[in-house]
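Hi U.,

Before I forget, here's the chain from the pilot set. I'm dumping it here mostly so it's searchable later in email.
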Amino acid sequence: MNIKMNLKKRILLGYLVPLALMLGVAAAVYWSIGTLREISAALDRSYVIMEHVRGVHRDLVGIQRSTRGYILAKNEISKKNYLDTRTQLQGGLRTLEQEVTDPKQRENLRRFSDFAQRMENTEQEYFDLVDAGKAPKAIEIFRTGKSVNLADDLDALAHAMEKREAEIVESRHEAQSNAMGQLMTIAVGATTIAVLIALVLGAWIAARIAQSISEAIAGMSTSSTEIAATVDEHERVVTQQAAAVNETTTTVEELGASSRQSATQAESMSEAAKQSLGVTQEGIALANQVSSSMTGMKQKVGSVAEQILRLSEQAAQIGSIAKVVGELAGETNMLALNAAVEAARAGEHGKGFAVVAAEIRKLADQSKKSAERANALVAEIQKATNSAVMVTEEGSRTAEEVAAITAKTLDAFGSISTTANSVAVGAQQVLLNSRQQAAALAQVTEAMKSLAAGSAQMAAGTEQTKQGVQKLNSVALALQAMV
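Structure:
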């Protein structure tokens, strides 16, 4: 039998087996009752046969009596009685022919019919002699005892048939008693067996159900213990994640402050670039006045040299600022990468933060490119300022050559003006990028705060899950105690 059948099938089996046994008992009882009915019907038929044998015997006696009366007195009433009794005798014989089934009885009935026919023929001969006016001869024949002998044979055969039918009745009574005993045995024995099997099967099903429930409870208890351990691990991870989110938020806030400082420095660099542009324009104006005023050339050249040195220093500051911006962009890119990893760990709560991290990486790449462009511009400014310093030094050493190189100085100042203008544009771009970076970092800060709130909610949900698992474990223990 399949031990792994479910609870529904086991309970159904507990009902079906006793029901099948009871149906078997009912079928056996029905068969026994049918047998009893057949025996009862056969008994009734035997009683009917015995009654008809007696009736036929009485009819034969009546025929003899009517024949004697007609021989002695030629009485029409006797003849009428003879005819009526003869009709009844024939009907009784036909009924016996239909009812008798026992082979021995049928043989007796055949002999009885032959004797009856012979007796009818003899009695009819008496009637024919009397009707022909030969009553004395009929009386003489009657006195020979031929009819009496036939009557004696018929009486003996009738008693034999009654005796045989009585034996048949007795055997059928015995069969009826046996059938009744068999019915009682089947009813009591089968019912007892059905009850015993039902009890054994019920005990087996109850044991199997208890075993299945115990195994299920044990599995549920083990699963709840494992879930509790997993929930504890998740709680620890969520706590670590919340701490990491707080640290990342602090880092992003510091990065925002640094970005704002970079924006301020970029703004200062832009002002310095504007000042450099103004100085170069003044240098161009002074160079135009060289031809008309040689006396103040040295002073102007010195002033230009000082301005160029200041421009070189400011260009170096711009290079340093661009380098800092590049480093900040690299750190921002690394922080964005870490934030994307943390967002992937956070699952659904970190999707928005992942988008913000991607935008920060884009802004960081743009800042890095802008810083590289600013470094290139600074390099060009430094080249230009170096050239200007050399020119001014040569102008300081020899004033006579100023006129010759005035045109070159004008060209150099034109290049410086263009470069300063480019530096100013680059500084404006750096300022814009820094402001965008500051806004993006603000968004990152807000996203990190949302992630921290989601981590807190996850921690609370983990705590509720832990409590639910503890309740489940308690229910499993209660069920195990019930089983």
